[in-house]
Amino acid sequence: MNTATNIETTFKGILINKDEQGYRAELQDINENVLPEGDVTIKVLYSTLNYKDGLAITGKSPVVRHFPLVPGIDLVGVVEHSDSADFNVGDLVINNGFGVGEKHSGGLAQKARMKSEWLIPLPTAFTPKQAMIIGTAGYTAMLCVMALQKNGVTPNKGEILVTGANGGVGSFAITILSKLGYTVVASTGRLDESPYLKALGASEVIHRDTLSSPGKPLAKERWAGVIDSVGSHTLANACASTKYGGTVAACGLAQGMDFPASVAPFILRGITLAGIDSVMRPIEDRKEAWQRLSDILEPSVFDDIAQEINLEQVVEAATKLLDGEIRGRVVVNVQGE
Fold it and tell me: Would you say residue 159 lies in a domain?
């Protein structure tokens, strides 16, 4: 337990407010008294822009639970103050989830205050920027792959479908699966991005329209496993076309939260639908996922998957993200250095 001195009282960040003037997210100077309770104060180096962050910043979904609040479900930074025996000043730490960016101010500001039980040390294999290129998207993709492996989906079982392939989770899922020897089929609404997806490791790219409309309770068996970040009819059709004994890992709802399916794939083909929650995942699972990521990913991956922006560009980028105009990962250089 130790303390740093001369901590700034204001800092730059995105702040979301909702009052008589309406709902708005703006870059501004933030007073430190806006920060919530926590036993570790962090100088944020990098954050990210995830789908949930886009919803929070634009107000298109009621993600934010109270106001004012700093969005950003991911962060990596340097400990400036600690009342925890687990972390010291100068430690590099990561936070993903635990309601950060929804009900607890998050990473899209130059300073954050967190509960120590939400933090893990930055793996030595990654720089701070690389850790945020991975972020919740890569960490979630790794949890999905782990679920497939836990249920016996090995590379020799057949093709793995990855939906929402141009997004952060999809991009990392393709990369991880390819590195592990799986044959990956990518589903996307932007076939012009096929060269990008094949460079990540996809053997084939299909249009999302083949999965996004109402389908049959059972379809021709094709997939040994599926990683789905889309939901709705896409998830239902993925389940309907999964091979006997296969596993579908569901982690997102880009098309919708509904699941218009039947029990047929589950009781006639014995498939497993594995729900992947990254927000409240226990710390030990997080550490395992990050360790697996450090074992699998090579430095060259990061240049292909990410683009870097600064805090001034976040609000505009959030709209582009929701409009499907951004591929891969968006990393935010919070300090602008």
Answer: yes
Pair 90, 78: CB distance under 8 Å: yes
Q: Reduced to 3 states, what is the DSSP secondary structure of residue 146?
A: helix
pLDDT at residue 300, rounded to an integer = 79
Q: Is residue 171 within 8 Å of 329, Cβ to Cβ?
A: yes
Is residue 273 within 8 Å of residue 91, measured between CB atoms? Answer: no
54 near 322, Cβ under 8 Å? yes
Q: How many domains does the chain have?
A: 2
Whether residue 290 lies inside any domain: the answer is: no
pLDDT at 20: 87
Q: Is 183 helix (H, G, I), strand (E, B) or coil?
A: coil
How crowded is residue 302: how many other Cβ atoms within 10 Å of its Cβ?
21
Same domain membership, residue 167 and residue 264: yes
95, 118 Cβ separation under 8 angstroms: yes
Q: For residue 307, give the amino acid letter.
A: Q
DSSP label at residue 100: B
Which pLDDT score, from 0 to 100, does residue 326 have?
87
In a domain, 85, yes or no: yes
- One DSSP character per residue, 215-243 reads --SS----EEEEEESSBHHHHHHHHHTEE
Kindly state whether residues 323 and 267 are assigned to the same domain. no
- The CATH number assigned to the domain holding 215 equals 3.40.50.720
Closest residue by Cα to residue 329 from 10, 48, 32: 48
Single out the residue of 199, 202, 135, 198 nearest to residue 169, CA to CA: 135
Contact 290, 282 (CB under 8 A): no
**CA of 95: how far to CAs of 4, 17, 142, in Å?**
20, 23, 16
**The predicted structure's pLDDT at residue 5:** 44
Which domain, by its residues, includes 248? Answer: 135-275
Say if residue 110 is in the same domain as residue 187: no
Among the listed residues 202, 200, 201, the one whose alpha carbon sits nearest the alpha carbon of residue 186: 202
| Tokens of residue 241, six digits | 């076309």
pLDDT attached to residue 29: 97
**pLDDT beneath 50, residues of the chain:** 3-7
